[in-house]
Amino acid sequence: MIPNGRRHVTAPETHFDKTYHVQINSIADEALLETLRNGIPASDGEFLRVKNARMLRQGEHNSWLEIILDEGKNRQIRRMLEHLNIEVLRLLRVAIGPLALGDLPKARHGCWTKKKSRRSIARWVLETTRPLLLCDSDHYFDL
């Protein structure tokens, strides 16, 4: 059974944006970003599009993009870039809605209740070194 709080944060119906930093094996330009925003038909017939895409930085042979999804279909970013013959070198989720992961190490956790506001959650994640655990009634779980 998946605890209710975790399902709430990651469920599509909550419409939390999922923010990713993506390293690709090519030099990105505005045309690529616009293609991602406008959408791409996947090989299975599904139409995939990002909510927003922007350039973070470029090297000589690769680029880092910030991609925001509002739905997040299975392997959506990888499938879109594969369709454009672009290899994904690294894919990092950096935020879910107001929960910015920042420097929070893997497997860290703390406690949140439904009563805490989105703003305080984001501020807590950015300012604290304590683990983050979401609480829903009597359900406690790691993010």
What would a concise description of this structure say?
The chain contains 4 helices and 9 strands; from the N terminus they run H-E-H-E-E-E-E-H-E-E-H-E-E. With 143 residues, it is of the alpha+beta class. The chain has a 5-stranded antiparallel beta sheet with strand order 4-5-1-6-7. A two-stranded antiparallel sheet has the order 2-3. It has a two-stranded antiparallel sheet with strand order 8-9.
Task: Describe what this molecule looks like in 3D.
- There is one protein chain.
- By secondary structure, the protein is α+β, with helices and mostly antiparallel strands.
- The protein folds into 2 domains: 17-96, Alpha-Beta Plaits (2-Layer Sandwich); 101-142, no CATH class.
- It contains 4 helices and 9 strands, in the order αβαββββαββαββ.
- The chain has helices at residues 4-10, 30-38, 76-83, 118-127; strands at 18-24, 40-41, 47-48, 52-58, 63-69, 88-96, 99-100, 133-136, 139-142.
- A hairpin with a 2-residue loop joins strand 8 (133-136) and strand 9.
Fill in the keyword field for this structure.
globular, 2 domains, Alpha-Beta Plaits, alpha+beta, 4 helices, disordered N terminus, 9 strands, two-stranded antiparallel ribbon, 24% helix, single chain, disordered C terminus, 5-stranded antiparallel beta sheet, 143 residues
Task: Please specify the SSE layout and strand pairing.
Elements (H helix, E strand, L loop, with lengths): L3 H7 L7 E7 L5 H9 L1 E2 L5 E2 L3 E7 L4 E7 L6 H8 L4 E9 L2 E2 L17 H10 L5 E4 L2 E4 L1
Antiparallel strand pairs: 1-5, 1-6, 2-3, 4-5, 6-7, 8-9
